[in-house]
Amino acid sequence: MNNSPIDKLPASGESIFATMSRMALEHNAINLSQGFPDFECPEKLKELVDHYIKKGFNQYAPMPGVPRLREEIQEKTLRMYGSHYNADSEITVTAGATQALYTAITAITSPGDECIVFEPAYDSYMPAIQLSGGVIKPLKLNSGDFSLPWDEIRNTITEKTRFLLLNTPQNPGGSVITEDDRKQFEELAGKNPGLIFICDDVYENILFDGRVHYTFTQSEILKPRSIVISSFGKSYHTTGWKMGYILAPEYLTKLIRKIHQFLVFSVNTPIQHAFADFLKDDAHTRELSSFYQRKRDLFNSLVSGSKFKLRPAEGTYFQLLDYSAISGENDRKFAERLTKEYGVAVIPLSPFYGDEHQTGMIRVCFAKRDEVLTAAAEKLCMV
Ligand SMILES: Cc1ncc(COP(=O)(O)O)c(C=O)c1O
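A: This is the predicted complex of the input protein with pyridoxal-5'-phosphate.
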């Protein structure tokens, strides 16, 4: 009798990020694949972590997060968006957005619940839904500008729909929702009283050309049924510290914390104290959009002489490049060839689609030092 454990995620193999980063190493290629900065986080933040470790803040934090960090998140959310969340009952500190997403999805999804996810989609959404027995309802964002497919959204919602997961600014599409989109979500909420929104807002501080982040926290209609997820990794150049948080009304936070306590119980104590101090000053996040816009513009102007076509990203630190004028290859093959033959590692777009949809595009991460972007663009101009 075969008594082996079954594979709960048979469709999941090595992630494309691991594959491309490994290939980058093997071929000594410039790595624009995985989404992390290759420059340092603020010196002050490092000093604060060091300070709290040396001062002995090295034991378990309270389950929902260090109280003074939750209070600072409360204040920051009020300053940035004018939205009030109660630090005791509506804010939970997590080990990055990935844990926040998994926890939130697990907390509200039961077998048979329908869950709407937009593609191209960040890779952690679907496995979390599957493990809870949810039924994934993938909707492709509009081709070209990766805007929301409103007719399909309205046609897909049924009384079985548990949640709709929205990521804005969107990775990898680089699109950002508009005020009109948020109004349409309000209408949708009015017509579907049981519908919950999970908002993956990890790039909330990286928007370009004067765009603003239309967060659901600012809507009286959407806020009471939204779980909003943020990541310190993306906003403070600290992806390796894995620290984020969830804003959600009390009835949802109660469900979320039940899962959170058994998944991690609590997260890194000295880093929570460091962020509690660092969050008092908004200077870093206020500058983030212009910091990354300059990098986007530098990279895009350098590749403008190449055969790649592009539509400048509206937000995030990713830029899509259309290679259809260069090759008709599928995107995995093209990305592999780019790494091996031209020395630039990028991410193909098809792994962000359940059906490996081909768009003729690849994704590059421009959260890199200027000299790295310049060297990579030079190589891309030779393709
Ligand atoms: C859209 C999106 N959501 C969530 C995450 C995960 O964030 P964290 O590193 O805080 O877990 C990422 C990281 O790349 C992302 O791009």
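The chain has two domains: 16-35+284-380, 43-281. The radius of gyration is 21 Å.
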